[in-house]
Specification:
About 75% of the residues lie in helices and about 0% in strands. By secondary structure, it is mainly α. About 0% of the residues have low confidence. It is found in: Cell inner membrane; Cell membrane.
Length: about 350
Amino acid sequence: MSQVTLPLAPNTPSASWRLLRRLARGTLSVVCTLLGLSALTFFIGRLLPIDPVVAIIGDNASQEAYDNMFHQLGLDQPLWQQFIDYIWQLLHLDFGMALTTSHPVAQDIARVFPATLELATVAAVIGVGLGIPAGVLAAMYRNTWFDHLIRFVGLLSYSTPHFWLGLMGLLLFYATLGWTGGPGRIDFLYEFDLQPVTGFWLIDSALSGKWAVFRNVFSHLILPASILGLSALAYISRMTRSFMLEQLSQEYIITARVKGLSWARCVWIHALRNIAVPTLTVVALSWAFLLEGAVLTETVFAWPGFGRYLTNALLAGDMNAVVGCTLLTGAIFVAINLLCDLLYRLFDPRTRQEGA
């Protein structure tokens, strides 16, 4: 009996090789994105009609002092050499000195960023805690008064300027009713009782057991966080409603209903589970947008965070601080996008099969 020789299967890359290839592509994409953002901020800084030498030494300095500072900043070098030096400094996390504070920009960002992170996180909790249930209920009761109410609130939060909402909130809840704290992060009376450790004052006051300080910090935080969370609530509820409507029209929902499964169980157990991955992406991106979009809110509430620091730097023409803040914002969005991609591959088997 003759033996039949089967052709060898083509070589297929192993799982580890596919993982390394995806990591290499992701790393290259991140490097190119950050390099392009760095180049963009560098050349915009050179094109702006702001003389960094005058911003440092003032208008009344002598020509000799001007020339010395011009040379010290490396502005007498060719543009390509300035760009290489600029990238080399960024690789060492050296953004230069901030003109507004006379401190290193990296040190200033490390000081103010926890305040914005705390504000954006509480706002995101409000947006997620209210937005997802509102979106699910709007899809369950489509075209009812509740659905129209949720859509109207979303439209209103998108169209109303946040600085106006902030001013009206301070006027009503702080100046008139006295329900919340005023501008700033804490009252002056409690400022010396707080020992910052993590930079998140709610956590620091809770860890130290000073609950009066905790209540005061929370009273200052809840109003700006609620106003900032309105945008997240509107976006998350709208996207959740859209995802849920798509799932409720699928055949497995109809089949489950025919078999006698309750409407609430179909929605909250089966359909909600199937929209978990895209909803998680929406939540992550909303949190990143809250970190970036806190500029006006922090300005209205005199919140000593990243957004207010960036606003002051822009008004003062402090390009070192502006560039540092811009690069940090870009790095946050790149990191969030990478995290979303990893979560997709982790929770959705179809994406792993497509990437094989």
